[in-house]
Design a protein that fits this description.
Elements: H1 4-21, E1 25-29, H2 35-41, E2 50-55, H3 59-66, H4 70-76, H5 81-93, E3 99-105, E4 120-127, E5 132-138, H6 143-163
Parallel strand pairs: 1-2, 1-3
Antiparallel strand pairs: 3-4, 4-5
Helix pairs in contact: 1-6
Length: 167
């Protein structure tokens, strides 16, 4: 299980990497409800590298705040890599950031299906250079553990992008 201390350590490491590159970060969160942003703002000095976060829990919020297309939501659903990519792109476009990430999933205990069981979480990462990455994970555990693992995963993905030698 990812601990609060681990999440704080990851967000601190992320802040160091972003500051070194003079980058700002924007986040778009759904199932985590702002947990990733809370971990980031727990780091003293994060205002120098964290621009903003969007909590877009409803489909309407995803459309209105992040420009997720209705056709994407209708075709693929809110929990899909397609939606996660559009959420991250929308966060980047509606911010001053050079890097953004998104989290959308089914934390449970209800809401899952055969195709998308509880614990299914989709992520998107976008860099201002046009690079778009997405992935889907299936996390075990209860609602809190799914959400906690989601925050850990989004931070790890952001760290990978900041450490990539070609950026």
């Amino acid at each position: 299980m990812a601990s609060d201390a681990l999440l704080l350590a990851l967000s601190t490491e992320l802040g160091i990497a972003l500051k070194e590159k003079h980058w700002q970060l924007a986040l778009a969160e759904s199932c985590t409800g702002g947990w990733a942003a809370q971990c980031i703002t727990a780091v003293a000095g994060s205002s120098s590298w964290f621009d903003r976060g969007f909590v877009s829990y409803s489909n309407a919020a995803k459309e209105e705040m992040l420009d997720v297309r209705l056709t994407t939501l209708q075709t693929y659903g809110a929990v899909s890599e397609e939606t996660a990519r559009e959420m991250a792109l929308g966060a980047l476009q509606h911010s001053h950031a050079q890097l953004s990430a998104s989290i959308t999933g089914i934390a449970g205990p209800d809401g899952g299906s055969t195709q998308k069981p509880v614990g299914t979480v989709c992520f998107g990462w976008v860099h201002a250079d046009g690079r778009i990455i997405s992935s889907t994970h299936h996390f075990p555990g209860d609602r809190e553990e799914v959400r906690r693992q989601s925050v850990k995963t989004v931070f790890e993905g952001l760290l990978q992008l900041t450490l990539a030698p070609d950026l």
